[in-house]
Structures are given as C-alpha cells and as structure tokens.
Here is the input.
Amino acid sequence: MYIARWNPWGGLENFHEDAKVAARRANAAQPDILPTTDIHETAEAFELSLDLPGVKLEDIQIEVADRVLKITGERRVEQRTEQPGYKRLERAFGRFARTFRLGNDIDEQAIVAKMTDGVLHLHLPKRPGAQPRKIAITH
Here is the structure.
C-alpha cells in the first residue's frame, strides 16, 4: 500500500511557468506604442489630441462601434542604410492602439478627425439635448 504525502504547494508547481506563458501572450496582444493623448471638454464637444509624429495618414484607422472609439495604426521604421555614427536610436516604431468608451451624449455620426503637424485632432460633438441648460428659479 502506498500513501501519498500531501503537498499544500502542489497546485503551484507550474505556477511560475504558467505565469510566464500568460505574460508572453498578454504582451503579444499589446501595441508597441501608446500615443499620448489630451482630452478637453467644452459645453458643446470633447476634443482629443493624439501625438503621432512620423505616422502617415494611410497608416491610421479610426472607427466607432458599440459606443467605443478605436484609433489604431502603425509608425513604420524608416529605411536606413547602414551608416556609421549612430550612437542612439530612441524613437519607437510599431503598432499603436487607443480606445475610448463614448458616453450617450456623443453624436457618433458627427465625429471629425484631422491631422496637423503630427497631431491627430478629433472633434466629438455632444448631442444638442445633452448640453447643460440653466433653469430659472421663480418666486
């Protein structure tokens, strides 16, 4: 008769390896770049500005589905000839993605985007009924 000794840590034997595999899978789904974004709200709209220097218009996609605004694209590596003298390469290249959940007050059909000097500007107007209104107090 064989009696197995109970090991309270037995379920964690492969935990470290499983965690490494999970981290690799998560990183594979992550974009290479996360563009910095400013969001400004006015009474009429939200204004988004994303820094995308060096990204071509044809490499940017903007879509809205199920009240989610998704901006994706890629900053492509410049073709460089092998030249001596490079000491440091810090600019990031690769895929990027930003998503924003839109409130019910945003008019999805009226969103406008433009690119100026490497900054993507999005104008997200609010629905007319969603704008605040002042209520007068009477005696």
Remarks:
- Helices lie at 15-29.
- Residues 32-77+92-133 form a domain with the Immunoglobulin-like fold (CATH 2.60.40.790).
- Strands lie at 37-41, 45-51, 60-65, 68-75, 94-101, 112-116, 119-125.
- The chain has a mean pLDDT of 80.
